[in-house]
């Protein structure tokens, strides 16, 4: 058995620190006591097995919503064997008030923990909601971009088809122009033939009249 004397400094009074120290001591089977000092620190005397005391010293360096242990000084002595349990040392006529304050501090600690836990849940819910909103927007953007790209691909395909059709129409137009030119040439030839035919017809008619005149003269 060994004894350790610990001076814990920081935010350690009126925050239920001694109750926490007692809970740790009871769990480890350590005996002794913890008392508040006038300078705002807490003096802890603990007796137990060496390995248990080492664990105890580590675990009493508490930092939570209310307690904030800033410094711990440790010194060892021989165990006296004068302790049977671990107690919170409370002196003076304010014992009952001190106990009630300690209990209130415990309730405040639990309330603070519950509020913090609730805030964490609210923040988590908000973050999840934000993640869902962002994911939905990103999915929507992806769909819009995909639709635009598909539309552009279809439009490009239609443009290519239109260009091919226009090329084909141009080729057909060129062929038609050549055919029209040939038709015009043919019409010019036909027109010439008609003129020549008309002229020959007129000459034939004149020749016929001359023949008739010659016949009449011969009859006389």
Textual characterization of the structure:
By secondary structure, this protein is α+β, with helices and mostly antiparallel strands. The protein has a domain of 88 residues: Alpha-Beta Plaits. 67% of the residues lie in helices and 17% in strands. Strands 4-1-3-2-5 form a 5-stranded mixed β-sheet. A hairpin with a 5-residue loop joins strand 2 and strand 3. Helix 1 runs antiparallel to helix 2. The longest helix has 125 residues.
Structural class: alpha+beta
Q: Give the amount of beta strand, in percent.
A: 15-25%
CATH architecture of the domain at 2-89: 2-Layer Sandwich
Indicate the radius of gyration in whole angstroms: 59 Å
How much helicity do the residues have? Answer: 55-70%
Largest sheet: 5 strands, mixed
Kindly report the CATH topology of the domain at 2-89: Alpha-Beta Plaits
Q: What is the H/E string?
A: EHEEHEEH
| Count of alpha/pi helices | 3
Task: Note the gap between the termini.
Answer: 185 Å
By DSSP, the count of extended strands is 5
Mean pLDDT: 81
């Amino acid at each position: 058995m060994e004894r350790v004397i610990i001076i814990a400094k920081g935010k350690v009074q009126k925050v239920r620190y001694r109750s926490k120290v007692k809970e740790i001591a009871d769990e480890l089977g350590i005996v002794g006591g913890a008392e508040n000092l006038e300078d705002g620190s807490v003096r802890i005397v603990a007796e137990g097995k060496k390995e248990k005391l080492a664990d105890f010293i580590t675990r009493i360096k508490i930092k939570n919503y209310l307690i904030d242990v800033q410094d711990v000084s440790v010194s060892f002595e021989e165990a006296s064997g004068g302790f049977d349990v671990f107690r919170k040392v409370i002196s003076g006529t304010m014992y009952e008030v001190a106990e009630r304050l300690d209990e209130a501090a415990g309730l405040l600690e639990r309330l603070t923990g519950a509020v913090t836990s609730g805030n964490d849940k609210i923040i988590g819910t908000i973050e999840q909601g934000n993640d869902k909103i962002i994911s939905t927007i990103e999915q929507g953007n992806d769909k819009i971009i995909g639709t635009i790209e598909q539309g552009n691909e279809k439009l490009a395909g239609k443009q290519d088809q239109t260009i091919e059709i226009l090329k084909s129409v141009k080729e057909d137009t060129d062929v038609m122009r050549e055919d029209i030119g040939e038709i015009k040439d043919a019409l010019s030839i036909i027109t010439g033939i008609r003129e020549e035919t008309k002229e020959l017809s007129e000459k034939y008619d004149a020749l016929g009249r001359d023949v008739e005149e010659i016949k009449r003269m011969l009859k006389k």
